[in-house]
Amino acid sequence: MELELTESQKEIFLSLEPGHVIWALMPYDITVLEKIEESHRVRPYLVIYKDESYIYAYESSSRESKRIK
Fold first, then answer.
1. Are residues 42 and 22 in contact, defined by beta-carbon separation less than 8 angstroms?
2. Do residues 49 and 42 make contact, with C-beta atoms less than 8 angstroms apart?
3. The pLDDT of residue 67
């Protein structure tokens, strides 16, 4: 499935590289987002990989992450 992007979105997508930090809307359905305080819906994400169609990133948070032991 190819995404339809505006020229501005294409420019941003092409400029992103692993290691960049981006601020983005949480990738949830609108019904889930509506349950989250509005000021917390946009978060920083660390880009770890990018292919021809997608950006793969880790969400950043002020909460301590769970560690796998």
1. no
2. no
3. 60
